[in-house]
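Handout, page 2. Input:
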Amino acid sequence: MPASAQDVVAQVKAMLTGTVVTTGYEFEPPTLRLAHQFSDSLADGNGADEANQVYQDKATVAASTEASYDLAASLVDDFGGTITFTIIKAIMVINTSTTASVLHVGGGTGADGTNAFDTWIQSAAGAGVGDGSERILLRPGGLFLLWAPDATGYAVTGGTADKLIIKERSALAGGAFELTIIGVV
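Output:
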């Protein structure tokens, strides 16, 4: 079944606020106020500041196992259509584990990184990393957000750069997460 026709409108908002107070002063202590905000949006389409497909999942992974997401043709949207992403504009993963489960996000199929969706990672030298073993560690309660609203986004290439892996990294306990992917088909 082809991808469902969708009119996508998405907005991302991130805010980090707080107060830092230095102690040990006789009079009023110096205070630093944290206020960092980010807001952006995507309209429906396939160019800059646009996307036309959304995929969501809420999943669990057993200890030392992984969930594999083939971004080019094996995902099914909430309306029953098959998704073949060509560009990724946003990925959000929330580690909802109630245990000490740390998740790996990134890489390709299995430990060898076959067909890794890693176009969002570069080596220190600036070249694509390419072996699929690169990933971030997402601690319990943590959030990972990748946002690329420009026309290029992050390329998905079927059969070579299309597998996103979320793996529970320890043998201690299973993990749970929520995943949202926004992109262009």
